[in-house]
């Protein structure tokens, strides 16, 4: 599995744990729109897919209502600060630095809106390890699916002269596996995110910690 030409990273649940702030903002948004607030266990349904889709799937909102809910949620996010309550998963930042030192181009491939991804990578000083920083479009509709995000990440890497012939995606949800299948990008699944065991079906491997992930990415 070694000799990858480039590495794509999901962000929420893979690189960072943003659950504290997400739960707080979702609680406020649910109450604002007259819904019962979610529990911590409910976050498995919210972290991963685009919020625009989740408001429709989870709360039965129309497309127009979901657009308003996303706008409200993003207002809360901007108010709190994109990095508030967010922590890095153990060993991931060090692994990204080691991959960069090995000369392997990296990019994010996140369903989180791109301005937030940029802010997080800057806050945790990960931007220097990345050739490209890619997330969903700010409206979460123009470029929303994991498939769209992966394709955009590959396009931007190629534009920077990166070799994208042997890419790999690191992610923690079935959306990552599905997006990888649709784009022909193999997926290494990490178990420390917000997922259920069956979500790793279709991934080429599962890593339970950063040490195992390092072996899968660098082959040492």
Question: What are the defining features of this structure?
Answer:
single chain; alpha/beta; 5-stranded parallel beta sheet; two-stranded antiparallel ribbon
Compute the number of strand runs. Answer: 7
Total number of helical segments?
A: 8
Oligomer: single chain
Counting helices, strands and paired strands, the structural category is alpha/beta
Distance between the termini: 11 Å
Anisotropy-based shape? globular
Given as residue ranges, the uncertain stretches (5+ residues, pLDDT < 50) are none
Tell me the helix content.
40-55%
Kindly report the spatial arrangement of strands forming the biggest sheet.
4-1-5-6-7
Cα Rg: 17 Å
Largest sheet: 5 strands, parallel
What is the average of the pLDDT values?
93
Strand content: 5-15%
Instruction: Please provide the ordered H/E string of secondary-structure elements.
Output: EEHHHEHEHHEHEEH
